[in-house]
Amino acid sequence: MWLDERVLALFKKNLQPTLTYWSVFFSFGLCIAFLGPTLLDLRCQTQSSLQQITWVFFSQQFCLLLGSCFGGLFKRTVKQSLLVLFISALAISLVFSIIPFCHNVVLLAIVMAMAGLAMGCIDTISNMKLVEIYQKDSAIFLQALHFFVGFGALLSPLIADPFLSETNCIQSNGTANTSSSLEHIRNSLVAHHPRNLSHYELPMTGLVITRVSYAFWIMALINLPVPIAVFLLLYKEGMVPGCARKGSSLLRADELAMETHVAEKAEEHHSTQTAGPTASSHDELFSCLQSKNFQGASFSYFAIHVTGALVLFMSDGIVGEYAGFVYTYAVEKPLSIEHKKAGYLPSLFWASITLGRLLSVPLSYWMKATTMIFINLSGVLLTFLLLLLTSYSTVFLFVGTALLGLFLSSIFPSMLAYTEDVLNYKGCATTVLVTGAGIGEMVLQMMVGTIIQQEGSHSFLVCGTIFGCLAFAFYVVLLVFHRMHRKPSAEVSGEQAAMKEGSLSYQR
Question: For residue 493, what pLDDT is reported?
Answer without folding.
Answer: 43
